[in-house]
Amino acid sequence: METLNETLNSMPRIGDTAPDFEALTTKGRIRLSDYAKEKWLVMFSHPADFTPVCTTEMSGFAQRKPEFETLNTELLGLSIDSVHAHLGWVNNVRKNTGVYFDFPIIADIDMKVSKLYGMLQPNESETAAVRAVFFIDPLKKIRLIMYYPLNVGRNMDEILRALEALQTSDKHKVAMPLDWKKGDKVIVPPPKTLEEMEARLADTAIERTDFYLAKKQL
Ligand code: BEZ
Q: What sign does the dihedral 194-167-152-24 (CA atoms) show?
């Protein structure tokens, strides 16, 4: 049996290649490496089916799926429940609220994927996955990780904002300041040489506080 330290040491980190796995989901068997090469993937865990906070979160993912699609991103859920439980919950939520979880949800009853991704954090719960979100880019690299405890739901605006920030940063080779959202100015990477610094100080097209802090409109 793996110790807590071994579990923590094997947790994937930002910049790592997302560990491959095969799993049973509500849309059949999937393998991470089979996901389309040009798409982003947001993979998220929830503690348990038929629980209140999880129902609000999963409904949030379902309702905002079109926005993820606009950002060329697939959704993949996970909990340590059976496919049978997932199907019952999906149908129950649809019946009660009209919201349909139309994305695959991994049935991780052997905890294989949750352990592989550090979603099982034994000091929080030994049997339920915490609320994790992994942002995986088209090269299958982990770009951002969120972990929330069992008793606090995530923020869908922030998940979408972070995804768009990552994609905008990649596309324009810029960085995103505090509270950045689409349409806001972005940070121009700081100069790395004296020559670049002089050029930055002479640049009148950017909003410059000093040579190391400058913003521009995309
Ligand atoms: C919930 O989703 O409401 C929940 C799940 C597990 C533990 C606590 C709350």
A: negative
pLDDT digits (tens, 9 = 90+) for 77-133: 999 999 999 999 999 999 999 999 999 999 999 999 999 999 999 999 999 999 999
Which helix (H) or strand (E) element contains residue 53?
A: helix 52-63
Provide CB contacts within 8 A for 31, sequence distance 6+: 20, 21, 22, 23
Cα(49) to ligand 1 centroid in Å equals 9
31-40, 167-176, 195-204 — which one is most confidently predicted on average?
Answer: 167-176
**DSSP tally for the chain: helices H, then strands E:** 7, 10
C-alpha–C-alpha distance, residues 162 and 180, integer Å = 9
- Give me the residue spans of the domains in the chain: 4-172, 173-218
- What is the longest distance spanned by two Cα atoms in the chain? 64
Q: For 4-172, which CATH class?
A: alpha beta
Pocket test residue of 45, 46, 49, 53 for ligand 1, highest count of atoms within 8 A of CB: 53
Q: Active site includes 24? A: no
* Reported pTM: 0.94
CATH number attached to the domain at 173-218 = 3.30.1020.10
